[in-house]
């Protein structure tokens, strides 16, 4: 049997936005019972807020969807949100960890993950960094033949995973499509014969095969096609212990938006994987590495309105943040739903929400919001993944604080930066120090 490629696997409309992470109760917006405006009073703005209950719900959905697979491992792709407290949550829930740098590996070990539960999947790194990961005892995933040859020469007895590029164009944006023929990621599926020669010549033990086609996949048929490609390649590797199908599962960003029906995918892919294991002769472990699927909806970004500015063409709500804190709308043309949490009963008006950076940093154009007044707090949904992690100090602005809502309580998990933080790594040259006139 082959997986059927109906679009239904990846096209379930979402009736609610942010999937109950932010709720309106008695005229006040809350996250897991915690008042949002109270959070701003306590921690100030701009502020990232994460809901642990939403993360757990998404993690449980995945494990339940693939419950018919005998061996399943969900490796949280921690590049989405790497705060050590978030990593500890996933470790406690039984997750593994997908890391793309040795620094993420070290953060994962600090958070309590066992080395065997961490898969290190870098690209275009030096062999020295790969060696550091080996020294930490984590699983190694190699995505080019040059490093594979170096690895085999030095570590012939260390099991290795190989990342395959299936030459599939998938993903919601060109910047997050990583499995096509022009991508820097993975070893071409057409180079598998070369890989086998290297493996046999150096006596390498290949314990896993990996692929990741991209994020925000819209066409299920494309994703399922890539899976069949990897399954065919797996038949040439007799010592496999696991197959990693990456991720790319889509979450809704707007009401009625497209989302991955993970339950339907689990039914189809789980059956196909079990069938393959029977053909292969033993039960392999099925791995996924979701990031956005697990944490995107859990995050809410809170900003304060500095000014309401009317021009001949637009009404701008200018806020105390910008692309330095949330670059996704500018970088990916990403949509983040915006709510005026200070004025939930206000009359609906049209605004373009913009930032305070000396560049064009527009969060949303012509959005219908409850009337925005200077000082109002605006909430941006789906801010859990690739949001704070891509923040910067552009314009010498401080990065915001992060708060985790866990079991109905707010916990500060990263303080707001200060001028001392900005200067902390700068080395001031004595001869360039200015003198203050007497």
Helix-strand layout with pairing:
Elements: E1 12-13, E2 23-25, E3 28-31, E4 34-35, H1 36-43, E5 47-51, H2 52-65, E6 72-77, H3 84-92, E7 96-99, H4 102-110, E8 118-120, H5 127-136, E9 139-142, H6 145-154, E10 160-165, E11 187-188, H7 192-202, E12 206-210, H8 220-234, E13 242-244, E14 258-259, H9 262-280, E15 285-288, H10 292-295, E16 299-310, E17 315-319, H11 328-331, E18 338-340, E19 348-354, E20 362-370, E21 377-380, E22 401-406, E23 409-414, H12 419-423
Parallel strand pairs: 5-22, 6-7, 6-15, 7-8, 8-9, 9-10, 10-11, 10-12, 12-13, 13-15, 17-19
Antiparallel strand pairs: 1-14, 2-3, 3-4, 5-16, 16-17, 16-21, 18-21, 19-20, 22-23
Helix pairs in contact: 2-9, 6-7
Describe what this molecule looks like in 3D.
The protein is an alpha/beta fold. The chain has a domain of 241 residues: Alpha-Beta Barrel (TIM Barrel), CATH 3.20.20. The chain is 27% helix and 24% strand. It is built from twelve helices and 23 strands. The strands form four sheets. Strands 5, 16, 17, 18, 19, 20, 21, 22 and 23 form a nine-stranded mixed β-sheet that branches. It has an eight-stranded parallel barrel with strand order 6-7-8-9-10-12-13-15, surrounded by five helices. A hairpin with a 2-residue loop joins β22 and β23. α2 packs across α9 and α6 runs parallel beside α7. The protein is globular and about 70 Å long. The termini are far apart. About 4% of the residues have low confidence.
**How is the CATH topology of the domain at 53-293 named?**
TIM Barrel
Rounded average pLDDT: 91
What is the CATH class designation of the domain at 53-293? Alpha Beta
CATH architecture of the domain at 53-293: Alpha-Beta Barrel
């Amino acid at each position: 049997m082959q997986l059927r490629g109906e679009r239904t696997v990846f096209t379930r409309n979402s009736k609610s936005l942010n999937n109950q992470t932010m709720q309106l109760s008695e005229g006040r917006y809350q996250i897991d019972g915690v008042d949002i405006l109270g959070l701003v009073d306590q921690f100030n703005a701009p502020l990232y807020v994460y809901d642990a209950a939403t993360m757990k719900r998404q993690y449980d959905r995945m494990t339940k969807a693939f419950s018919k697979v005998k061996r399943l491992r969900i490796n949280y792709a921690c590049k989405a949100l790497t705060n050590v407290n978030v990593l500890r949550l996933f470790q406690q829930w039984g997750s593994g960890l997908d890391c793309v740098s040795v620094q993420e590996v070290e953060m994962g070990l600090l958070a309590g993950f066992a080395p065997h539960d961490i898969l290190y999947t870098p690209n275009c790194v030096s062999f020295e960094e790969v060696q550091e990961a080996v020294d930490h005892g984590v699983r190694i995933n190699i995505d080019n033949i040059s490093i594979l040859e170096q690895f085999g020469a030095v570590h012939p007895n260390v099991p290795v995973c190989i990342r395959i590029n299936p030459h599939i164009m998938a993903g919601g944006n060109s910047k997050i499509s990583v499995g096509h023929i022009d991508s820097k990621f993975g070893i071409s599926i057409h180079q598998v014969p070369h890989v086998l020669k290297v493996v046999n010549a150096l006596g390498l033990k290949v314990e896993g095969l990996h692929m990741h086609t991209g994020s925000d996949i819209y066409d299920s048929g494309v994703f399922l096609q890539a899976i069949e490609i990897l399954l065919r390649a797996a038949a040439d590797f007799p010592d496999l212990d696991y197959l990693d199908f990456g991720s790319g599962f889509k979450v809704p960003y707007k009401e009625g938006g497209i989302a991955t029906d993970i339950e339907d995918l689990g039914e189809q892919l789980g059956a196909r994987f079990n069938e393959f294991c029977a053909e292969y002769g033993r039960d392999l472990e099925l791995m996924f590495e979701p990031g956005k699927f697990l944490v995107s909806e859990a995050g809410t970004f809170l900003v304060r309105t500095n000014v309401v500015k009317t021009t001949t063409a637009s009404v701008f709500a200018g806020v105390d943040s910008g692309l330095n804190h949330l670059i996704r709308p500018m970088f990916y043309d990403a949509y983040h739903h915006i709510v005026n949490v200070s004025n939930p009963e206000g009359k609906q008006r049209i605004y373009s929400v913009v930032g305070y950076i000396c560049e064009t940093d527009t969060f949303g154009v012509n959005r219908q919001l409850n009337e925005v007044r200077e000082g109002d707090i605006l909430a941006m949904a789906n801010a859990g993944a690739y949001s704070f992690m891509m923040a910067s100090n552009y314009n010498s602005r401080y990065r915001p604080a992060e708060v985790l809502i866990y079991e109905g309580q707010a916990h500060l998990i990263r303080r707001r930066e200060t001028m001392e933080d900005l200067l902390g790594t700068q080395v001031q040259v004595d001869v360039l120090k200015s003198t203050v006139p007497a």
